[in-house]
Specification:
- The chain is of the alpha/beta class.
- It is 38% helix and 18% strand.
- The chain has twelve helices and 17 strands.
- Strand 8 and strand 9 form a beta hairpin.
- Helix 3 packs parallel to helix 9.
- The longest helix is centred in the last third of the chain and has 22 residues.
- It is globular, with a radius of gyration of 21 Å.
- The two termini are 40 Å apart.
Length: 394
């Protein structure tokens, strides 16, 4: 079906941070399957682990105990603030589970009508009907009305906006059960959370008996230089969702909860493929390799080098570029609104030069390479970016 404006490239092979198309041309991949291919392409450890798993068992059902699932759950709990895990297949599914969790939490705490979930403007939480209803960008919702009720929106990093919205809803007789928010907004333009704002959210939720749920689908699994995006904010959520980088390119997502949010009972939620042995073995391998290869440090160091290089480009083209935003290997180069340059124009040019990039809106060039990227490859990204700007602007 016609659901993508596909770029006319057909990739047939990949290795580390490189992809080759069907003509044999090589590209440096700074998209990584949209922040998904944590270990890059054709990773030997991942290939070996999954080949072995296929010869062992690939799927049974959550009707039974699954050793690979239990091992992954233990790793996730030990390495995070969470106490329990629900496995699914994608970020949107993880957020659907979080939305159901928030509603049940509200009903358990006496909400007789619709428990309200607050989300941020410019957020993105997935493509299912409830997930786009929770997304603070009307462009994703257009044509799919009526939306799921029970969502309202505040301005990101704005405590007054939260307080005013909450009071307005309270005056209208509505009860807020949860706040769903990204520690760093991805699709909305690479906006890092303000630690002071997130400290306010934590205190606000505690005072009003509201669940604080983080969407870590893009920021989790080392993307920001920390294993979890919330670690950059010195705040712990009551629950958080992950996917993308968790499976290193294989389909898996999860909702992680602290004990206070561990309220699902058998029959409340389920997933046929969620937490299957194959997907869990992929995620376990990614998790182990993040630690074995010290990829959190690599994400931090390469992120600093990338940011410094982007700042140099910003200084060279002040009439067209506004700022650099991001953390670790989740960086955005922001184009001024008044510039005739757009992210799509720039991405087309970068492809001609052998570099794959992705937008985060019309005016944000997003750079999210695999976490295994080396210093010399960061330099190559910056070299090509400079060439593109020289050709497009001068």
């Amino acid at each position: 079906m016609n659901t993508y404006n596909r770029i006319p490239l057909k990739f047939v092979r990949g290795k580390e941070v490189w992809l080759w198309d069907d003509t044999g041309r090589r590209y440096l991949d700074a998209v990584a399957g949209i922040a998904t291919c944590t270990l890059g392409h054709s990773d030997k450890k991942l290939s070996k682990a999954l080949s072995k798993q296929l010869n062992k068992i690939q799927h049974v059902s959550n009707l039974y105990y699954i050793p690979e699932q239990e091992e992954l759950a233990h790793w996730l709990v030990n390495e995070s603030c969470a106490d329990s895990v629900f496995f699914c297949n994608s970020g949107a599914e993880a957020n659907e589970a979080a939305i159901k969790l928030a509603r049940k939490y509200g009903h358990i705490n006496g909400v007789s009508k619709t428990p309200i979930i607050l989300s941020a403007k410019s957020s993105f939480h997935g493509r299912t009907l409830a997930a786009i209803s929770a997304t603070g960008q009307p462009k994703y919702q257009k044509g799919f009305e009526p939306l799921v009720e029970g969502f309202d929106f505040f301005s990101f990093n704005d405590s007054k906006s939260v307080e005013n919205l909450y009071q307005q809803l309270k005056n209208d007789g509505c009860i807020v059960s949860a706040i769903l928010i990204e520690p760093i907004q991805g699709e909305g333009g690479i906006h890092p959370g303000d630690p002071k704002f997130f400290k306010f959210l934590r205190d606000f939720c505690d005072e009003n008996k509201i669940l604080l749920i983080f969407d870590e689908v893009q920021s989790g699994m080392g993307r920001t230089g920390k294993l979890w995006g919330y670690e950059n904010l010195d705040v712990e959520p009551d629950a958080f969702t992950i996917a993308k980088g968790l499976g290193g390119g294989h389909a898996i997502g999860a909702l992680l909860v602290k004990e206070k949010a561990n309220i699902f009972k058998p029959g409340d939620h389920a997933s046929t493929f969620g937490g299957n042995p194959f997907a869990c073995k992929a995620a376990l391998t990614v998790a182990q390799e993040i630690q074995n290869r010290n990829l959190l440090k690599n994400s931090t160091l390469r992120g600093i080098e990338l940011r410094e290089g982007l700042q140099e480009i910003l200084r060279k083209y002040p009439n067209h570029l506004k700022e650099v935003r991001g953390l670790g290997l989740m960086q955005g180069l922001i184009i001024k609104e008044e510039s005739n340059l757009t992210s799509s124009i720039f991405i087309k040019k970068s492809i001609e030069e052998g570099l794959l990039l992705i937008g985060a809106g019309d005016k944000v060039i997003r750079i999210v390479p695999p976490l295994i990227i080396k210093k010399k490859q960061i330099k190559e990204i910056l070299r090509i970016l400079n060439i593109c700007f020289e050709d497009l602007i001068t």
